[in-house]
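P.,

For your records, the input lines for the assembly:
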Amino acid sequence: MEVEKVSEETLKEISREMFVVRDTGVKEEGERLLELQIGPAHPGSGHMRILAWVDGDIVVRCDPDIGFVHRTIEKLSENRAYIKTIPLVERPSLLDTTPMTIGYVNAVEKLMGLEVPPRARYLRTILAEITRIASHFYGIGILSIFLGHSTGYMWAFGDREIMIELATMLTGARITYAYVIPGGVRRDMPQNFPDQLEKGLRYIERRLKEWEKIFLMNPVVERRLRDIGILKPEIARIYGVTGPNLRASGVDFDVRMAEPYEAYDEIDFMIPVAEEGDAYARGLVRFKEIEQSISIIRQALKKIPDGEIISPQISRLFNPLMKKIYSESRRVKLPSLMATLKPPKGEAVARVEAGRGEALFHIVSDGSPNPYRFRFVTPSFRNVILFKYLIPGHRIADIPAIYGSLDYFPPEADR
Amino acid sequence: MQPTQSSSVISKDSDLEMLLHILENKLQNIIIRLYPDKSGRAIYIEVSPDKIKDLALKLLELGFEHVKSVTGVDYPSENSIEVLIHVGSYLRTLRKYIVIIKTRLDRNNPRISTLTDVWPSSEFHEREAWEMFGIYFEGHPDLRRLLLPEDFEGVWPLRKDFHIRTRKPGEVEPPWK
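Structure tokens returned:
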């Protein structure tokens, strides 16, 4: 029997068609593609623009356009004293300020060889966990409003307020605390703080059960988030994804465990991990992390030792008035020498686990009162690559769901 | 990690000793210098710019699978720009260490081969290093501006000869004049 020969061109045509079908209907570039600009003033997207090329309503190519609020923190710090950069590093991530200051201050402490008293380390840990809970509630609230679930949005912002009030009680400032200073913290906790904190934590625990009913078990939320934006562990590894987004893909990396800073090595806690790697898993991991943070705060409150809150290397520079203020009201007034702090020549690297993932700080010092070079990498800047590679293949309606589930905060990537 | 603890860590940490031993053996023909920092958690590797790809491939083989940051440090007095690459791993044994690759480029024409084919995570970091320092990454698939305005002109912003212009009281930026 004679077999009809198929020409090479037809073969190519067939293989191309097969490729198209397999690859979620994506055509080759240049064919019937529509460029769609989402943002930068879209109510949901914040000040970030997503350029999406769509075929029908399927996204073929996606390009995140960040850089609408670039603050040049790295450059500004080169013209400032070390101590004045502390309020700067907390600006990018207004919801999650303390881990950032801890990271920067840790790097300065490494440069100078400063020792931190245990009580200060515990106070830093408590505040960092309070802001982590607040930050996760913010993320969940934004995810809710992206899905059109406005109750979730209002609930999340209401619950976040509790944690902000507690942090205000501890630090005296509402969101930008600047509480962590080289060698210790700015002031001790007030007498009634542990009671109020316990009250707040109990409230959050009670709310988490209600959250389960209204959000996690909500059929609409599940339908919108399940099997959307699946990030496989091997892909998450090579793209350097960090934070809850990484842990939702089954990689149990957390800086608090990998390289413990502050008081984390003295506290028992778990790292919540999900295997699915979809948008729903990322939301779930955040809820589980709130539970763990509550447990960390409880343990830290139980274990917190009495004693100094500032390193003796700094407190010995106090003048009589500062000593009086410190002994009477346990507040630290910094000696003027701190304004012209001159760490020795060298380099220091520090990293912390902020609410959204790992933040990296690298200071190059040349012995002058300003950092010679300060490199600051935020978790959102490392996660922004996901917009480019995770969204293609999904529908336009899935963009907000993926965006919200990544807990991306544009100013943090912009710095 | 506290400085007092860290000095003891470095003597106790047998993992670090082993890792340094492996790195020294594996990289001896490629690198110039290799040393850990005081805390024993960051390992600095100095390398010449033409061997950076070999080094990256060797590190990838060892399990350092992602880049945490790619950036530069400007040294106008020495007429050079230093490229800093922070590499990390999510493997259980390596996750506590950061490898920091350092290499010096000519400041007038800073060119280096891209590492996006070895570490895809360096894509956005390299774009940032290009727009801020003018370091040209040869073979980068998509070298465009990332953070700056598209019509930005003038000196590369993070170089030392870029000076921040402070606004005087009452002065308004051009578009709103």
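Two observations worth noting. The interface with chain B takes residues 66-67, 70, 72, 74-76, 79, 106, 109-110, 113-116, 237-240, 246, 251, 253, 258-261, 347-349, 351, 358, 360, 362, 364, 372-373, 375, 377, 381-382, 384-385, 414 of chain A (CB under 8 Å). Strands of chain A lie at 34-38, 49-55, 58-65, 180-181, 184-185, 346-354, 357-365, 373-377.

Regards
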